[in-house]
Amino acid sequence: MAAHTQEFTSVWTRPQRERRDQPALSREQIVSEALALLDTEGYDALSMRKLGTRLNAGATSLYTHVTNKDEILELVIDEAFEGVRLPDTVEPAHWRDDLLRLGSDVRLAVLSHPWISTAMTGAGLAYLGPNLMRLSDGMLDILEAAGFDDLSADRAANAFWSYTFGATSGETAMLTTIARSGLSEQEYFARFMETAQRVTQDYPQIAKRYEMYRSLDTTQSREDFFREELELILDGLEVRRSRDARK
Question: Where are the extended beta strands (E) located within 120-199?
Answer without folding.
Answer: none
